[in-house]
Amino acid sequence: MTFKILICDKIADEGIKLLEKKGYQVTKAWDMPKTQLPNIIGEYDALIVRSATRVTAELLANAKKLRVIGRAGEGIDNIDTAKAQELGITVVNTPHVSYISVAELTIGHMIALARGIVEGTTSLRQGKWIKEELMGTELNGKTLGIIGCGYIGKTVERLAIALGMKVLPVEECALDRFVPLEEMLPQADFITIHVPLTPRTRHMISTREFNMMKDGVMLIDCSRGGVVDQEALYQALISGKVKAAAIDVFEEEPPKNSKLLTLKNVIATPHIGAQTHEAQLKASIQIAQKIIEMLEKPKS
To answer: Which residues contact residue 256 at a Cβ distance below 8 angstroms, ignoring those fewer than 6 apart?
Structure first.
């Protein structure tokens, strides 16, 4: 029997080659309009996605042969896992393949905020020399609050300590002590967030939490769109409560008419936390291996 694999979001070639080596029929559908997926999903035994494709209950209702959904990445919030379970479809992902990439982007964003790197580049391209206006701050000696201390948070903690920062993790971390969120917020000069998007974490940082923060705090969000209430963040930024923010994730991606992107004290990237050659290679190979394992497993 030849299994048919539908890949909706681009992954590295190495993973595709593993699937093809097994003799599977692989369809590369990342350039196909998402609206066409319900019309073809019924032909396939396995589906591979990243964050761009939403695997909804409506899509799964047409997946008559589907046995496994593979998410080449960490989060699975774009997959209706309850519906998949109801239909007997296994969901697998690739945890821990991108934690170094996300942690390094977080540190990069933090340095860019502290030193005005983006505004400096933009102003030079405009023919301006605004050296005096770009007075920055050192990270050494500052306090970093880390919300969520899984692989990413622990790596951020290690890198921040190497920069001479004091770290207050809001969760058990290997390198420092646990503190409650309410204790960390008033102390932190910088805050970074590394939790998955769940019903419990949606808008966990909103008006109440911003009001508890130190005036002039800087926020870095490389977690998931929706963890931070972006309207509340906008209000905190224009009031000066939050001095500046770096954002890699949005509640709607790509963002449309985001008020945050109109602010000079916001820098942003298009959800590139895991977008490194190393992370994508590992994710592609690992998800292909997991798809093969599930398809070759005898049906129970």
So the answer is: none
Q: 182, 253, 278, 293: which one is catalytic?
A: 253
Mean residue pLDDT of the chain comes to: 95
Place of tokens 């009001």: 211
278 noted as active-site residue: no
Fold matches, 4-94+277-296 and 99-268: yes
109 is catalytic: no
Q: pTM of this prediction?
A: 0.89
Establish whether 203 is a catalytic residue: no
Give backbone dihedrals phi and psi of 81, rounded to 5 degrees, phi first.
Answer: -70, -30
Instruction: Answer yes or no: are the C-beta atoms of 138 and 114 closer than 8 Å.
Output: yes
Assign domain 99-268 one CATH number from 3.40.309.10, 3.90.180.10, 3.40.50.720, 3.20.20.70: 3.40.50.720
pLDDT in tens, 15-52: 999 999 999 999 999 999 999 999 999 999 999 999 88
- 119 is written with which tokens? 């505004």
Catalytic pick from 271, 277, 293, 296?
A: 271
- Would you say 165 and 140 are in contact if contact means Cβ atoms under 8 Å apart? yes
Task: Provide the residue ranges of all domains of the chain, joining segments of one domain with +.
Answer: 4-94+277-296, 99-268
Which class does domain 4-94+277-296 fall in? alpha beta
Residue 298 has pLDDT above 90, yes or no: no
